[in-house]
User: Fold these one by one.
Assistant:
Number 1:
Amino acid sequence: MTLLFRQAKPEDATRIADLHTRSWRTAYRGLLPDAYLDGPLLQERQAYWATTLPKAQDDDFVLLAEAGDRLAGFIAVWCNETSKTSDPYGNYPGLFVDNLHIDPEGRGKGLGRQLLLKTLEHAQSLPDLRPSLWLWVMAKNARALGFYQALGGAITETITEPFGGILVETHRMIWADLAALRAACQR
Ligand SMILES: CC(C)(COP(=O)(O)OP(=O)(O)OC[C@H]1O[C@@H](n2cnc3c(N)ncnc32)[C@H](O)[C@@H]1OP(=O)(O)O)[C@@H](O)C(=O)NCCC(=O)NCCS
């Protein structure tokens, strides 16, 4: 089915929260405690997206990939310095990818790459050009780590932070050359 890409609106909060929850419950199984993943995560994600989407400002954006009325994936990118400070470690210039999630049934089919490419295309229409793209990825999230490294991402820092009731090792990954990332996404 053809995919349609568009920016999220505040009324998309429930659908994003649903996919976000299913993605965490599968991708983070074994990495975060079952009690956290099987707890009231959906309600927590719903509250998060219901407050976060209306707060997105200026050049922040959340892109959705839709297959008919089904949400196939989404990416959230914070460009605005104020938005980034919602991440206590977020003070780094560039496009900050806060979330990239593909429907668990549609992973490994190229959509992650496509969403990153759409992100780079959208970023070119913003008033300020961004020098780089970066994100945090759990060290034990082997699939995502492999995906990012295959696209040329470099680990520049490793921190330990609280997540889901435990401490997790998390890498900061950076793409300093956006043209190279773009080429890797198109391969
Ligand atoms: C990580 C994620 C976003 C990747 O998206 P995806 O659509 O599954 O990945 P793609 O199909 O676009 O992969 C593109 C390329 O990455 C590479 N790749 C993917 N996974 C890889 C891995 N584990 N190891 C090495 N290379 C990998 C492959 O080269 C692949 O290219 P190919 O199709 O030619 O083989 C997706 O799997 C996902 O949503 N995971 C769960 C949520 C998550 O962990 N998000 C990231 C949080 S930081």
Number 2:
Amino acid sequence: MERIYLSRREGGLGLTKINQAYKEAIVSIGQYLEISEDENIKKVAQYHNEALSQQTSITKQAKNFAGELLEETMGTEQTPAAMIAKKTSYKFSSREEKLRMERWKHHGRAGRFQGELGKGYIDKEESHIWLKNGNLGFDGKKMIVGAQAQGLLTNGFKKMTGISGNDQCGFCYTAVEIVGHVVSACHTLLADGQYTARHNMIYKYTYWKICKECNIEVKDKIWEHEPDPVTSNRCITIFYDKIILTGGDIGGAIKPDNVICNE
Ligand SMILES: [Zn+2]
């Protein structure tokens, strides 16, 4: 839920929380009343401080919401009270956004996506660009955000919450239906490897083209040429769908499609 009210650059949906908007307005007005040098405004502030209750006094509510963020220095001509009030409201809104972010991070299920985003090899900004661009409709966004937050109503989720006793995938019936399985591991949804076969045909073509460019002998027809895991001539070595041993853990992806070593 916290994510809905975060800004889009932070991966949220950018909705305005009505409760938060109300508090920001109160903080801004309360701050203005407290530091304005105008004699009439001072009287209003005094009335709110002395005659009104906690629930109806703007100044008391502002202290309650923003606390130590409120400035005590009176406004001057150079820094008018209205400007200070705006700044205080902004500080208050930033603090609340940080708190929302923390709550999202520490959420047992939805927070896992934040954990993934924090990994060194993930470009956080690029990961949120689809949200910033806003090309998807509400239903599309809802589906993706739901999947990232592990919040889709899968059979695994239904069993966990006691709605149903069956947690098996409704497409392949061979595994527990969780978001990760549906998105990237279900053989039925992945057309029994047909997508991989199509993908392999494309990089078979790039392999064949590279060989031709480097004067390595290949058959005339791409479909007749079966690539070797390692192909080389005097100056170049081409690895095709081969596991590359790395010095350290690079988080998977050690079997690239084509690798060219140009010596
Ligand atoms: Zn499945």
